[in-house]
């Protein structure tokens, strides 16, 4: 398995791409309200990426994907396609954004609670974000990929939630989806050793019910088989000489990771 070690110049370009992805999520946040359609959110992101950032929406046309962002609502796990559906109060929705700039990709996603959420949905969204943060904090030179998965799995199971096994994080750089695969469950001390210059996403998908998923007839949208709620958060992470750097850190998260 060939895992790319990024040069200082490549890392700087990844910082730019990561910052742009974070800015898209910051920009779109005020518009995620009851009554908005996911198509409207997608259009705003497309216009911002292409016209303001002078960048490329990496998902659009990727393996035939028809939109700029992924919008996954309630029991949708990932890869939901934006459309005419209006969000309503109580929905939870993940917006997944990937920006390509100067051939490099920044990939990040954020959960939103639309209007007033239930106690269960609020807890799921919070615990899933905590899972991601714990996975990130396990990153440092000499650690192993299994350390990331173990930290995420332990926290999810402590809260009686399950971890989706069908999808995982991934290496990223010039290539959108590269090696290594980053599983969100596992055993500490196992798997590939982390080295400075590696860049990958950590993007746990956590379900209220069972972990099994299925893909709908659109060939993209993954949902929980038992129709239980699902949540996901994602950041792009650089392994540094002393630990990690979150390349897609949003303004609201400064000082929190």
Commentary on this structure:
With 257 residues, the chain is an alpha+beta fold. It has one domain (8-249): Creatinase/methionine aminopeptidase superfamily (Creatine Amidinohydrolase). It has helices at 8-28, 38-52, 119-137, 145-158; strands spanning 56-57, 70-73, 76-78, 92-101, 104-113, 162-163, 169-171, 178-182, 199-202, 205-207, 213-215, 222-224, 230-232, 235-239, 244-246. Strands 1, 2, 4 and 5 form a four-stranded antiparallel β-sheet that branches. A three-stranded antiparallel β-sheet has the order 3-12-11, with no helix packed on it. Strand 4 and strand 5 form a beta hairpin.
CATH superfamily: Creatinase/methionine aminopeptidase superfamily
**Secondary-structure arrangement, i.e. CATH architecture:** Alpha-Beta Complex
Number of strands: 15
Estimated radius of gyration: 17 Å
Strand content: 15-25%
Label the overall shape.
Answer: globular
Short description:
The chain has 257 residues and is an alpha+beta fold. The chain has four helices and 15 strands.
List keywords for this structure.
single chain; 257 residues; alpha+beta; Creatine Amidinohydrolase; four-stranded antiparallel β-sheet; three-stranded antiparallel β-sheet; 4 helices; 27% helix
Write the layout of secondary structure elements.
Layout: H1 8-28, H2 38-52, E1 56-57, E2 70-73, E3 76-78, E4 92-101, E5 104-113, H3 119-137, H4 145-158, E6 162-163, E7 169-171, E8 178-182, E9 199-202, E10 205-207, E11 213-215, E12 222-224, E13 230-232, E14 235-239, E15 244-246
Antiparallel strand pairs: 1-4, 2-4, 3-12, 4-5, 6-10, 7-8, 9-14, 10-13, 11-12, 14-15
Helix pairs in contact: 1-2, 3-4
């Amino acid at each position: 398995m060939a895992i790319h070690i990024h040069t200082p110049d490549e890392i700087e370009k990844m910082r730019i791409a990561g910052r742009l992805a974070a800015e898209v999520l910051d920009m779109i946040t005020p518009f995620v309200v009851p009554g908005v359609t996911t198509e409207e959110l997608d259009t705003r992101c497309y216009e911002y990426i292409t016209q303001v950032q002078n960048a490329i929406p990496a998902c659009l046309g990727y393996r035939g994907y028809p939109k700029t962002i992924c919008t996954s609502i309630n029991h949708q796990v990932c890869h939901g396609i934006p459309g005419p559906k209006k969000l309503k109060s109580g929905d939870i929705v993940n917006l997944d954004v990937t920006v390509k700039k100067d051939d490099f990709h920044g990939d990040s996603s954020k959960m939103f609670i639309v209007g007033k959420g239930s106690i269960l949905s609020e807890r799921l969204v919070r615990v899933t974000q905590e899972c991601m943060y714990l996975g990130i904090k396990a990153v440092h030179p000499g650690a192993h990929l299994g350390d990331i998965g173990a930290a995420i799995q332990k926290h999810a199971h402590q809260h009686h939630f399950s971890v989706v096994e069908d999808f995982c994080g991934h290496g990223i750089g010039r290539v959108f989806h590269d090696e290594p695969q980053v599983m969100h469950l596992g055993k500490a001390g196992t798997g590939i050793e982390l080295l400075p210059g590696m860049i990958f996403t950590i993007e746990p998908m956590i379900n209220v019910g069972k972990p099994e998923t299925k893909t709908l007839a659109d060939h993209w949208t993954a949902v929980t088989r038992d129709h239980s709620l699902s949540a996901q958060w994602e950041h792009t992470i650089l392994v540094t000489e002393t630990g990690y750097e979150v390349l897609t850190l949003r303004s609201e998260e400064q000082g929190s990771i």
